[in-house]
Design goal:
Blueprint (H helix, E strand, L loop, with lengths): L1 H27 L1 E6 L2 E6 L1 H27 L2
Antiparallel strand pairs: 1-2
Helix pairs in contact: 1-2
Length: 73
Amino acid sequence: MKTNKMIGAILIIAGLLMGYLAYNKISESTQSVNLLGLKIEASNESGKSEGYMFLGLAVVLFGGGIYTLNKSK
């Protein structure tokens, strides 16, 4: 019982950290510059897709942690 709670807590923490990293990866993949009133945007599509994959993994880890905690009760 106690190990299930520990594993659930570790999964939740890992999901939150992975979500934070995914958010940073997605936001770093898009840059914009204002030059003489002209807005220029550049984006890294492969970085964005990698960030979205990290975000999906974060949701799975977080959901697995919640499920494990609820199952152990």
